[in-house]
Amino acid sequence: MALKTCWKCEKQYAEQKSSCPYCGAKYIDPKEIKRRPTKKIESEAMKRQPTKRQRRRTLVIGIAVLLLLVNLWQMFALGEGELDELETGHTEADAVAECRRFIQAELGANGSVRFPDPGSEAVTYTGGGEYEITGIVFSRGGSGLETVSEFLCIVQYAGESDWEFEDLELTPM
After folding, report:
1. Which of 24, 38, 160, 164 has the maximum number of C-beta atoms within 10 A of its C-beta?
2. Taking a C-beta distance cutoff of 8 angstroms, is the pair 95, 157 a contact?
3. Is there a domain that residue 52 lies in?
4. Is residue 53 part of a domain?
5. pLDDT tens per residue across span 108-141
6. CB neighbour class for 81 (10 Å; exposed up to 12, middle 13-18, buried from 19)
7. With contact defined as beta carbons under 8 Å apart, do 143 and 130 qualify?
8. What is the SS3 assignment for 19?
């Protein structure tokens, strides 16, 4: 007795049967099968490859995120003083320089007043071009003794590199 092999479950059964007794698959004579073009089988890795459109979208999103990060860096890493200049034409450094000039004029000759390292002042931008600057100043009076004072200086930007002196409080330490 001749046996056939089932194309579906691959078990053998009698040649007289028209279908597989195990899985029910109908017998197909290999001579009757028409040759069909084979389907290209893509691997899972190939299916996951991004399309050109997806790559372009990812690139655009990446550039947008990069621009946002650069903008945030400008706002926070550079400090408010640099942004003030972009918005108003003056910076915290300008306000500190003007405040130092006013203090020197108030305390006497230029040689008798000195300040700690640049950037030692605390600067607060209160809006509308007004700055409050606090820090320490060393001054030498007529007796030759050096006095250390804490100061609060308020200056107002008046435009075109003009500044107005608003207030100065000196507290000896």
Report:
1. 164
2. yes
3. no
4. no
5. 654 578 888 777 888 888 888 888 999 888 887 7
6. middle
7. no
8. strand
For 80, phi then psi, to 5°, come to: -65, -30
Q: pLDDT at residue 12 above 60?
A: yes
Each residue of 143-167: pLDDT tens digit? 777 888 898 999 988 877 788 888 8
Higher pLDDT, 146 or 89: 146
C-alpha distances (whole Å) from 119 to each of 73, 94, 105, 148, 150 are 21, 12, 20, 18, 15
Contact between 100 and 151 (Cβ < 8 Å): no
List b or e across 139-161, with b for residues whose CB sees 16 or more CB atoms inside 10 angstroms: bbeeeeeeeebebebbbbbeeee
CA atoms of 60 and 66, how far apart (whole Å): 10
| Within-domain flag for 100 | yes
Angle, CA of 149, 153 and 156, to the nearest 5°: 165
| Whole-number pLDDT of residue 38 | 57
Residues 69-89 have a mean pLDDT of 61
Which domain range does residue 106 map to? 86-172
Q: In total, how many domains does the chain have?
A: 2
